[in-house]
Amino acid sequence: MKKIILLVSLVFVSLANVLAQDNRLIGIADTYYNGETSAPRAYIDAVLRAGNIPVLIPFMEDEARLKKLIGTLDAVILPGGEDVDPARYHEKPSPKLGAVNLPRDSFDMAIIKLTVTQHIPLVGICRGMQAINVYFGGTLYQDLPSEYDVKNVAHRQSLPKAIGTHTIYVTPKSYLARISGQDSLQVNSFHHQAVKDVAPGFKVTARATDGVIEAFESEKYGVIAVQFHPEGLVMGNDSAMVQFFRSIPVKH
To answer: Which residue out of 126, 166, 192, 214 is catalytically annotated?
Structure first.
């Protein structure tokens, strides 16, 4: 009888753990551009597919209100977008620098500060990863094709985001390794910039076959960041990438 009660208890504990992962509030930072407030639909769908609730964090300059909004969330996603202004990592613009979005730079940096100081997990994707690296003192390749010697990976693929086109090697026991159970993954690629000097306090957890940094983490700051677009791979029914969004750590 005791064994039956114990078994039932374990079932309920397991069920509670599963349910606890659902219906969490996951903030998605505004990709504010030319006065337009929006979030790419793929991020919204990926969060929904993972069983959680997407919440747009609209562009605002009132830091007190932004802090209050972020404080209601379980985790925050910084999505992709334009190049980060190189002045933020003390470099002059390369002739190959793409479009920058100065208001969004300021907004993203404010979000990073407010998530970290409130101990809310932060996920950076593509530009989001680059902005996080810059905020904490790292630098970027302003243009991989002209600044990075090894060129055996197409970092700007022509195929849709749902399709993985190159391999990354994953560090054991990292977030990507835990959620996928694999030491390599096929990912997509839509960038011409990437992390160069890694910010202090961060550990590289995945690289492309050409050595470009594809993921890093910081337990100290509660950050997980990737250079590729997992939300695009979710559209292609990649189970590991669905798990990427489902397993995002949340504040305690």
So the answer is: 126
